[in-house]
Amino acid sequence: MAPILGCIADDFTGATDLANMLVRGGMRTVQLIGVPATDTPVPDVDAVVVALKSRTNPADEAVAQSLQSLQWLKAAGCRQFFFKYCSTFDSTDDGNIGPVADALMADLGTTVTIACPAFPENGRTIFNGHLFVGTQLLSDSPMRNHPLTPMTDSNLVSVLQRQTKKPVKLIQFATVDAGGEAVAAELAALKAAGGGIAIVDAVLDKHLESIGYGVKDLPLITGGSGIAIGLPGNYRRAGLLAERGAAGALPQVRGSAAVLAGSCSAATLGQIARFEAGHPSFAVDALRLARGEDVVAEALGWAAGRIADGPVLIYASQPAEKVREIQKALGRAEAGALIEEAMAAIARGLVASGTRRLVVAGGETSGAVVSALGIEGLQIGPQIDPGVPATVSLGGEPLALALKSGNFGGPDFFAKALASMP
After folding, report:
1. pTM to 2 decimals?
2. Which residues lie across from 377 on neighbouring strands?
């Protein structure tokens, strides 16, 4: 059978986050890395998630990659489509959420979709159109200091309206709290009025269930992974999805282990502090990289003498004030590229020397690492922490991977991820 749901994610960890939610809902799921080639075989699964590295690309590049992915997913026979972005709505006023959503809507011939990044289990909620991170407005959270997509406006209606020419409306809490039929009616009214994109309030998981029901007839859904909570039930009610157990079973992978961290989020910095208290760690310095010093060779040499005794940590993460200093000295894009290239090269060297288990923190870092290793797809396994599953690479000698969004996971995530790997 053809996949039911075809998904396009704008970064690698966001893709695994979404795939994790689908597996939890009983959908067999595979994640493909990058735009699939025309002759890529269609896997025998219920959902396919195409992981792009387009979140911070120029908008025209993000649109082109997303449309190419959509063509493959349509040819694969998918019935519904999902554009997934971060639960903190990471973007700039020039895109990329609005431009990609507009392009996908046009291709699918639909005038209405939703935009809902809510994920209450991870503290992302929307009320009166404002996105909260825990108890803080998005604009008051550490995301205001994000090095690539600083989020200084928590009003998602305003944020998205700056990115699209389509009307951006709000489906308020009272409607969502009334249930899925009320959400569907509101979307029908939006269509009758000429269409647009609806930001949807959601505070509890039950609201995601209602939203999921309300979008059952939409060709395209956009949002965070939380919306996926309500989708498997739609497919079961339609007779498309069988009840099954062990949707996330993975093969075992043996070998040494390492943690690579590039995210500068507050959550990742706390995880680094917790993990390096009991494990050897090596800090990658962007300024040394810029001076041409061979930090990659130094890190690999350092790891070679330690990794046989247990997991090692190699990180480039820095507090916000240090990030600003580095960006001032090197430029924002240049600093990011140096770090991504170094972490990718370190991952390549570790795997070449026998490492088979990697935990990677940060969406950009994960994308660079997976690309450098030539991984074309991931089998999605059980959840480690909300939004982060264990995975095993497809094709060739398998690698066990945990790809973590910078903001996700508890303080002991790294140790927990290593223990959860097959």
Report:
1. 0.82
2. 32
